[in-house]
Structures are given as C-alpha cells and as structure tokens.
Specification:
2 domains; 5-stranded antiparallel β-sheet; 4 helices; elongated
C-alpha cells in the first residue's frame, strides 16, 4: 500500500501504513499558521482490504466538531461519495473497503485549480460576462474577477468572493452554481438581478493556498464595497 498527497490540494502525513486496519495519518498545519482542518490524499494498493484510516490529530483541528461527519471518497476524482467515518474524541476513523486499487479521500469534494480555470474560462464565453485580471498571488498566479451585468452608475455593485480559506472548497462549488444561474439568459430571476445590479465575482481569493492545501498570502481588500458577500 502507498499513501500520497503530492498533488493539487493534497494534504496528509503518514505515520504508519503497515496494517490496513490501523493506518495512522496526521493532518499537516497550514503554511505559517496553526490552522489545520483540510485533508486530501490518495491510497493505492488496498482493493478488497477493509481499511481503517485513523487521522490521529483530528481532535486538535481548528473545528474539531466531527459529529455526524462522513469523509468523501472517489475513484475517478469526478464522482465523490460519503464513506463511514467515526470520531472518538481524538481520532477520526474512516472505515472503507476500496473496490479499486486507487482511491482518493478528502475532507470535502475538492475543487481543483484546473476546475477553477475551466470555470472562469467558460464563464467568459457568455455575452453577459467579462473576465478581468485584478491581481496576482505571491507565487504569480492570476486572481480573476468575473463581471456579470453591464456596469452602470445607477445600479448596485455587488461583490461576491470565495475561498479566502482555501480548504473550504465548498465555497467554489457554490460559486459555480451562482455563476451558472446568473449567466442563464432564460432565467427571469437572474435577468432581474443583472438589470438592477452588477456582480463582481472572485471565485478563488487564495489560489496558492488552494493548490498547496494551506493558507497563504493573497490579495485582500482594505475596504469592502457597500454590497459585499464573502462565501468562506
């Protein structure tokens, strides 16, 4: 068996891998931070083995309320499903028998950098949307803003930003749904909204951190606009 996390948004430290029923793992802290919550890793070579994957520092995470939580897993990185997970007050134990030799586990369904690029690239093809470059990350990656609706001084300006905390991939999934709705030319609610407001959508505020599975320096606004929504 082998466990790895050297890929986009990967995060885990292997402590013990000698027994499939007692795999011991540890979540790494975010870069230059004591925050830890997100995990995402790949297990290879365990098809047909009943595995217990124990995250031994789950009780030390920033939000250690794991009641009624189940981790997600995927064989193809497109379709994610929940797997039985138990928290004993210290360890978060994922109990799963993989059907195939390669399986991914994560805190929540990841939204990768490639998915991010696809999202903003596809959105710009709509006549209702313009993509603007608003800055760069510390590592030189673009920070994109999608402008939906014709800018007009008589209209409200509404900013929606997501993923200041990069491990909160659910925020970018939300943004994907919001963008899809706003760009639907046949949706009367969306058209009413863009008649009265211009939307400035930053789908990922912390691109470096999302890739490294850790918080990092990012572009932050010194003063929020009047109409401002943060989707953490």
């Amino acid at each position: 068996m082998k466990i790895s996390s050297n890929f986009d948004s990967g995060n885990i430290e292997v402590i013990s891998l000698s027994n499939p029923e007692d795999i011991q793992l540890k979540i790494r802290k975010d870069t230059n931070s004591d925050f830890l919550q997100w995990f995402h890793f790949r297990l290879v070579g365990a098809a047909g083995y009943p595995c217990k994957l124990k995250i031994v520092n789950a009780g030390e995470t920033s939000y250690p309320k794991w009641d009624n939580y189940n981790a997600v897993a995927s064989y193809d990185r497109k379709n994610w499903f929940r797997v039985p997970t138990v928290f004993d007050g210290k360890n978060l134990v994922i109990d799963h028998m993989p059907l195939f030799n390669s399986v991914f586990y994560a805190y929540f369904a990841p939204f990768t950098f490639d998915q991010h690029l696809d999202l903003v690239s596809q959105a710009q093809e709509s006549d209702l949307c313009v993509l603007k470059h608003v800055g760069e990350t510390v590592e030189g990656r673009n920070i994109d803003c999608l402008i939906v609706g014709e800018p007009d001084k008589t209209k409200k300006n509404i900013w929606v930003i997501a993923r200041q905390h990069p491990g909160e991939s659910m925020a970018e999934w939300f943004m994907q749904g919001l963008i899809t709705r706003l760009l639907n030319e046949n949706d009367p609610v969306a058209r009413k909204l863009t008649d009265e407001a211009t939307f400035y959508l930053v789908t990922n505020m912390n691109v470096d951190g999302s890739i490294h599975a850790a918080n990092g320096k990012t572009l932050m606004q010194k003063k929020a606009p009047k109409y401002f929504i943060s989707v953490i």
